[in-house]
Design goal:
Elements lengths: L1 H20 L15 H12 L22 E4 L3 E3 L3 E7 L7 E3 L5 E3 L1 E3 L2 E7 L7 E9 L2 E10 L5 E4 L3 H6 L4 H15 L22 E4 L3 E5 L4 E4 L2 E4 L5 E3 L4 E9 L3 E9 L2 E8 L1 E2 L6 E2 L4 E4 L10 E8 L2 E3 L1 H4 L4 H16 L11 H11 L1
Helix pairs in contact: 1-2
The structure holds zinc ion (ZN).
Length: 367
Amino acid sequence: MKKIRKTLVIFAVLAALIISSGCEFSPSEPTIGSDAQLSESSSSMEESSSEPEPVVEPEPVVEPEPLPEPVVHISATEVNKGGYITLAVENIDLYGCYFTDFLGYERTFRGKNGIWYCFIPVKTAADAGEYTLELSFGDFYYSENITVLERVAPTQYLTVSEKTLDETLEDAAVRAAFDEFYQKYRWVNTGAALWNGEFVLPLGNRYYKETTPFGTFRTFSNGATEWHNATDMAVAGGTPIYATNSGRILFADWLGLTGNTVLIDHGYGIISWHYHMNKIDVNDGDMVEKGQLIGEVGTTGLSTGNHLHFGISVGGIFVDPMAMIGTTPEFDFWNALEEEETFEEPALSEPEISEEPKEDYEKVIVG
Ligand SMILES: [Zn+2]
């Protein structure tokens, strides 16, 4: 009895719906109820009801949505030697876009979640001054004025024993092997972002002495000179070395000039370089997590004492690795956006929400 009454009620409601809307009824519409009885009653309704002739309406003319304009975010327009700029572009597919940057290097974009990233590093040996960054791809054109800032380079004279010099800088085969290795790996640009958040110190919280900072102009006792493109971290031999970020082991082997050497590919052309190690605990091709043990500090190759030579290259150019610690390439980008928005927002004058931006700001810093 109860079932019949419910069926009748549903019947009446359905009939009213059909008359009022003229819409085709779908039994799966959730407007009526969700009982199993619903499907029974609706099928009986279909047999007995006479549906009105469907009105054929002309297809509405759909205007194509105008494509959104590409938006370019740039992390900075003033950059130190040994720093890098992040370009992030939205609303355009930049696959296959190659351009020459303002220092003459070919650059490309890597896509992640609909945003196309390009990192533009500035080598230590670049001239300070004004540059124009220009790129075009199809109808897309972008240009920006870039200022490269002067950087005071420390100098250093390093006395190396005759024996070590003979085995390293003075050995043509050793130097040739290093050149081959260097050219092979510095331009690796894997199309996957393998890093995971901020870069961390490779010696953990261990105290170390920075014996040669990044960007030092160094003269060896045999007269050879170089820009030191990494940070030398002096610490006891055998100290564990941890992956500065997640990635894939690109190289884990002995080289005459740099001793036991490990390269980690963090993706998008970002690579960390570790020289003079006592021991290597990883193999070529291994995937490593940030903080994972990769080996121990030593004094192998062209080295005068136990230390880790720790470098990071971005797009084939060495940047200041210590400036990378505590940041991610994406963090720099989003941080720049945050500053932009805070600058434009007049909301601080309204007292009821004046606390909000402060909290958000702290969240960004901690996260
Ligand atoms: Zn070094």
